Amino acid sequence: MRCPSFLAMLLLAAALPQTVGAQVGQARHDLAIGVNGGFLINKMSFQPTIKQNWKGGETFGITFRYTCEKYFAAICAITAEIDYANMGWTELIEVENINDTYRRDMRYIQMPIFARLGWGRERKGGQFFLQAGPQLGYCFSETEHYSEEWHGDQSWYRPNGVIQQYGKSVENKFEYGIAGGAGVEWSGKFGHLMLDARYFFALSDVFKNGKKDDFGRSANGPIMVRLTYLINLKKTKGDHIK
Fold first, then answer.
1. d(CA 96, CA 5)
2. DSSP string computed for 216-233
3. How far is 197 from 181, CA to CA, in rounded Å?
4. Structure letter (DSSP) for residue 54
5. Which of 169, 183, 168 is nearest to 114 (CA)?
6. What is the pTM of this model?
7. Partners of 32 in the beta sheet?
8. Omega within 30 of 0 (cis) for the link into 48
């Protein structure tokens, strides 16, 4: 009697991890592709400080998503994008009897790669998600916009006396940093519709930042709101997926 009982316990112990694993982690092989578009507001982090207003700009691109697993209640996926974004800055020039305005458009191609966790429905219904990961970018174009009345060559006409940025082209075109945010998704018969908000913290500077350079810090920090539509290229089969 003891031997069969002991063997039964061993078999149960061997089967238990597989049973738990089947309940906890369920593999997925879902692939989706689509388009995104939205709006961003940006302020540059400058040292020495340049006073600014939020600068608005457009952003749009292509989104890829691979869903790999459902772990407990969390739906795990990797998302990659190739985006266009119009960043830069708008200066706040508050000097009496001076009507100067200045704005710089800095146009980037960006590639964020997100690890994503979602909670909710996969096929039909709503889902909340969090995402975060690295982002690379390249500034391929820039344009400066000056007012007709202009006193930018005289530092006493600026709140902090900083005028080195005028006419100074982007020196570090490659950009890298960390992005992250949250959003909601609605999935249905015709695909997935997502709305998300995210923040990008640049770890690189647009101007050189050596001891003899004009700026010790010059980095983008946009807040983005984006709408994305995805269609399924591949879906995991199974009635257990809701």
1. 92
2. SEEE---EEEEEEEEEEE
3. 6
4. P
5. 183
6. 0.85
7. 65, 232
8. yes
Instruction: Check: CB of residue 198 under 8 Å from CB of residue 181.
Output: yes
* Integer CA distances (angstroms), 160 to 47, 64, 91, in order: 11, 44, 12
Give one word for 133, left, alpha or beta, with left for phi > 0 and alpha for psi -120 to 50.
left
Please, what is the average pLDDT of the chain? 88
pLDDT at residue number 1 = 39
Tally of CA atoms within 13 A in the half-sphere of 127 that contains its CB: 25
Tokens coding 120: 């909710």
Q: In residues, how long is the chain?
A: 242
Region 220-230 average pLDDT: 98
Please tell me whether residue 21 adopts helix, strand or coil conformation.
helix
Q: Is 26 exposed, middle or buried (0-12, 13-18, 19+ CB in 10 A)?
A: middle
Residue 240's pLDDT is 62
pLDDT digit string (tens) for 45-62? 999 999 999 999 999 999
For the stretch 99-120, pLDDT in tens is 899 999 999 999 999 999 999 9
Place of tokens 């700009």: 57
- What pLDDT does residue 7 have? 40
| 39 contacts 54 by C-beta, under 8 angstroms | no
